[in-house]
Amino acid sequence: MGNVILVQLLDYPGAQKSALWGVKDLLDFANDQGERVGRPIFETSICAEPAGHPDVVVLPPALMLDPPKLPTGWRQHLISQHNSGTVLASVCSGAFLLAGTGLLDGRRVTTHWRHAAVFQKSYPKAIIDTNRLLVDLGDIVTAGGVMSWTDLTLHMIKRFGGRKLMLEVARMFVLDPPEREQSYYATFLPNTKHTDQKILTVQLLMQETPGAAHSVSSLAEMALMSERSFLRRFKQATGRTPVTYLQHLRVEATRSRLELTRDSFERICWDVGYSDTAAFRRVFKRIVGLSPTDYRQRFGLGTPGLGLGPEEKQTG
User: Fold this and answer.
1) What does pTM read for this prediction?
2) 21 and 61 part of one domain
3) Do 165 and 223 belong together in one domain?
4) Domain boundaries, position 125
5) Which terminal CB of the chain, N or C, has fewer other CB atoms within 10 Å?
6) 311 within a domain of the structure (yes/no)
7) Among 82, 147, 137, which residue's Cα sits nearest to residue 109?
8) How many independent structural domains does the chain possess?
9) HEC profile for the chain?
10) Same domain membership, residue 250 and residue 290
11) Amino acid 188: pLDDT
């Protein structure tokens, strides 16, 4: 990316200062590495309240055990930022602040396991999944544990600056790459910075349910459009056809399963919506540049240096 990514870290009352400054340290170091090759990546600021329309806003964890409350006046600011295309991110109990905007209604989210019951009671419309350390929905990113600000930051560095830069930062700070690492060659970044709200609604559904039996006709019906209009507007808004868009979403989901589980490729294919494993194997290799077997051998459980456990030969 050629543009500098503006990152705003929100220092609300009770916010964990080590998380705020730790995220800034990681991003500043990443930016230094980018400047060495003439390409600054991030401009990071710690703010007492949301302001302007940065590319990313991060809500850090709180120091107290009780969930933090959204400060007066922040709700509309955060909603406005989100509507303008800002990526909203939270760490641990920071998810309570994000949920207070209503933007997590019907969306998948993670937070610290300790807060799961309270979070579900407070925000029953959100889909809580504390089994996952990090959930990236494109426009909203949530990380679970108190110290998962390191995972979130490395994930953001990879997302906006590439995997190579993320690994440089991880090595410098002696951090394991984030468990939600999904790509070596390229990352699929869904384009949600457009004004077609009907298409955005369909995109969000596809991102949250990539394994469902989506078809052009069913998606067009959801968008209340004819298939011809839907195809035209979807391509105009996202830069891809619905079919290729869904293929990329399913490949991203498959990458994560190959990296973090020992599930067979056949089982993964079925879960992401493919009954023809040979066809999906070809799709995967075309998009990723590696076969599923080669990808798992390089980045799956037991990959040397990633600290993911004893090395075992995988099939797939």
Assistant:
1) 0.59
2) yes
3) no
4) 5-172
5) N
6) no
7) 137
8) 2
9) CCCCEEEEEECCCCECHHHHHHHHHHHHHHHHHHHHCCCCCEEEEEECCCCCCCCEEEECCECCCCCCCCCCCHHHHHHHHHHCCCEEEEECCHHHHHHCCCCCCCCEECCCHHHHHHHHHHCCCCEECCCCCEEECCCEEEECCCCCHHHHHHHHHHHHHCHHHHHHHHHHCCCCCCCCCCCCCCCCCCCCCCCCHHHHHHHHHHHHCCCCCCCHHHHHHHCCCCHHHHHHHHHHHHCCCHHHHHHHHHHHHHHHHHHHCCCCHHHHHHHCCCCCHHHHHHHHHHHHCCCHHHHHHHHCCCCCCCCCCCCCCCCC
10) yes
11) 73
Provide the pLDDT confidence category of residue 35 given band limits of 50, 70 and 90: confident
Identify whether residues 273 and 165 lie together within a single domain.
no
Closest by alpha carbon to 25, among 142, 153, 175, 133? Answer: 153
State whether 50 and 93 are in the same domain.
yes
Q: Within a domain: residue 179?
A: no
Residues 168 and 201 in one domain: no
The number of beta carbons lying within 10 Å of the beta carbon of residue 124 is 10
Burial track 220-255 (b if 16+ CB lie within 10 A, e otherwise) = beebebeeeebbebbeebbebebeebbbbbbbbbbb
| Tens-place pLDDT, residues 60-102 | 999 888 899 999 999 999 999 999 999 999 999 999 999 999 9
Asked whether residue 12 falls in the same domain as residue 117, the answer is yes
**Do 31 and 166 fall into the same domain?**
yes
